[in-house]
Amino acid sequence: MPGTLVAMPGVLPEGEPVPRDGSLPATARRTVGARGFGVYVHVPFCASRCGYCDFNTYTAAELGGGASRETYADSVLAELALAARVLGDSPPQRVDTVFVGGGTPTLLPADDLARILDGIDRVWGLAADAEVTTEANPESVTPESLKTLRAAGYTRISLGMQSAAPGVLAVLDRRHSAGRATAAALEARDAGFEHVNLDLIYGTPGETAEDFAASLAQVVDAGVDHVSAYALIVEDGTRLAARMRRGELPYPSDDVAADRYLAAEAALGAAGFSWYEVSNWARSAAARCRHNLLYWTGADWWGLGPGAHSHVGGVRWWNVKHPSAYAARLAEGVSPALAREVLSPDEQHMEDVMLRVRLASGLPLDVLDEPGRAGAERARDAGLLDAGAYARGLVVLTLRGRLLADAVVRDLLP
């Protein structure tokens, strides 16, 4: 399928132990930020849990003792101080992007989000043109909070719309009304945000073609400059999965999801959007999410917060999941990292191919080995790769290729 809703995994992967001080191998610190440097901040709080969600998030009832929203910014700043010590003599020249995700980051006071951003700037320095994004649920922002965030230096906001159809929102257990997301988008533009994204989920049981068309029309009418659209996947352990096992709801259909993707491409293309990653469209190059592009092109980033993942110089690590355990480790002055892995050259190559094939900018053919190039030739002959781009030495998916992106990747990594 062209895109799926990706959650922070319910179970963290296994890996090797991380030193108590979080130190990295010298080889990983040699080229910090050479391909760009970003900071991800995970805010693990939600007012309620959506039925499809498998993210590392907690409602007040689930949180337990030892962690709170009130002290959360202090814990993040403590990890930031640890990160500064770890990268000490080899810090990034600048922070190109900051992305605050969740959960619902805007459940924190806007002043706390401003304090976290100021801390990042003080430690490493924000680039003059840094992209600074926060995610938000539509009901968690107001014109006043949006103005505070914009004044603090946030340049971009990503709003979880999911659908304009009340019935679809009900199946997903979303709390906002059908029109609130687009209203929040307009409020963000009025507050001075340069870039506004709306997230859509398609293929929800009960969603009709007309429902999705209405969602796309609302997105276009809202005047946003970026849209993300993901096919619903059903994660084990979620309320939605339980309802499907009981037969209350049908499982998503791959054929329906493909139809929805084609509808998104047609509607967004007609409105002046262009795809730049399989599940993401922007009105201009300036509107593309630069933080996600860092991920997709193998740059470095430090992930702050419980369950957050980081990548520096081919070393990837992930923090303990629960906010209480995260806060306790930092209070003791030790790294909150649970485990890490050092990516081999083969693993780095595999990830590079998997991610860059999904980009409209394409993957250079010369990074593929001989079997991979043979697979690319087969994909071109099958109409899955753009023939013109192929002649220029690039692997670029056609529209049909985007629908079968995973199959193309398998052909390139035999």
TrEMBL record:
<keyword id="KW-0004">4Fe-4S</keyword>
<dbReference type="InterPro" id="IPR013785">
    <property type="entry name" value="Aldolase_TIM"/>
</dbReference>
<keyword id="KW-0349">Heme</keyword>
<dbReference type="Pfam" id="PF04055">
    <property type="entry name" value="Radical_SAM"/>
</dbReference>
<feature type="region of interest" description="Disordered">
    <location>
        <begin position="1"/>
        <end position="23"/>
    </location>
</feature>
<comment type="function">
    <text>Probably acts as a heme chaperone, transferring heme to an unknown acceptor. Binds one molecule of heme per monomer, possibly covalently. Binds 1 [4Fe-4S] cluster. The cluster is coordinated with 3 cysteines and an exchangeable S-adenosyl-L-methionine.</text>
</comment>
<dbReference type="InterPro" id="IPR006638">
    <property type="entry name" value="Elp3/MiaA/NifB-like_rSAM"/>
</dbReference>
<protein>
    <recommendedName>
        <fullName>Heme chaperone HemW</fullName>
    </recommendedName>
</protein>
<keyword id="KW-0408">Iron</keyword>
<keyword id="KW-0560">Oxidoreductase</keyword>
<keyword id="KW-0479">Metal-binding</keyword>
<keyword id="KW-0411">Iron-sulfur</keyword>
<feature type="domain" description="Radical SAM core">
    <location>
        <begin position="31"/>
        <end position="274"/>
    </location>
</feature>
<keyword id="KW-0949">S-adenosyl-L-methionine</keyword>
<keyword id="KW-0143">Chaperone</keyword>
<keyword id="KW-0963">Cytoplasm</keyword>
<dbReference type="GO" id="GO:0051989">
    <property type="term" value="F:coproporphyrinogen dehydrogenase activity"/>
</dbReference>
<dbReference type="InterPro" id="IPR058240">
    <property type="entry name" value="rSAM_sf"/>
</dbReference>
<dbReference type="InterPro" id="IPR034505">
    <property type="entry name" value="Coproporphyrinogen-III_oxidase"/>
</dbReference>
<comment type="similarity">
    <text>Belongs to the anaerobic coproporphyrinogen-III oxidase family. HemW subfamily.</text>
</comment>
<dbReference type="InterPro" id="IPR004559">
    <property type="entry name" value="HemW-like"/>
</dbReference>
<dbReference type="InterPro" id="IPR007197">
    <property type="entry name" value="rSAM"/>
</dbReference>
